[in-house]
Amino acid sequence: MQKHDKMVALAKEKSAEMTETAITAIETMYRKNKKISVAELTKLTGLSRGFFYNNPNVKQVMMELKEKQQGMILRNPKSDAIAKAQEARIKSLEQKLSDSVPKNEYESLQKKYEELQVKYSQIKKGTLLKMYDQL
């Protein structure tokens, strides 16, 4: 009997530790404005998905904080990583672009472009005036 009581006590102690770990992780995600999800919690804690659904204390805390998150702007770790990758890609492309066209050539092309825009608008106005006169 004594062995059985010891095993039960150890199981309860381990369960209490796992519950504390889960609740701490949920509260941390809430404080950091990260979306609370069971998938993310399993990654953070190493606990099973079922633990978050089957443990009534953990489930209650999780549901309460998820409810509080409704309408909040949350950080999504995946979107943060995507944004960083996009920024790096943009910088890389900007560097390639600046390396491909010398600065003085770029400036001269920019001037030609502006001149052509002015000529185009003048031609367009002239064409519109001629069309208006024909009416």
What does this protein look like?
There is one protein chain. This protein is mostly helical. It folds into two domains: about 1-70, no CATH class; about 100-135. It is about 85% helix and about 0% strand. The chain contains six helices and no strands. The chain has helices at about 1-30, 40-45, 50-55, 55-70, 75-100, 105-135. The longest helix has about 30 residues, at about 105-135. It is elongated and about 105 Å long.
Mean pLDDT over the full residue set:
83
Number of strands: 0
Please give the share of residues in helix.
Answer: over 70%
Q: In this structure, how is the largest beta sheet organized?
A: none
Count the DSSP helices: 6
Structural class: mainly alpha
C-alpha end-to-end distance: 108 Å
Topology order in helix (H) and strand (E) letters? HHHHHH
Overall, the morphology is elongated
Tally of domains: 2
Rg, nearest Å: 32 Å
Strand content: under 5%
pLDDT below 50 for ≥5 consecutive residues: which ranges? none
InterPro entries: TnpC-like
Pfam family, one: DUF6262
Protein name: Transposase
Which secondary structure elements does this structure contain, and how are they paired or packed?
Elements: H1 2-31, H2 38-45, H3 49-54, H4 56-68, H5 77-100, H6 103-134
In short:
The chain has 135 residues and is mostly helical. It has six helices and no strands.
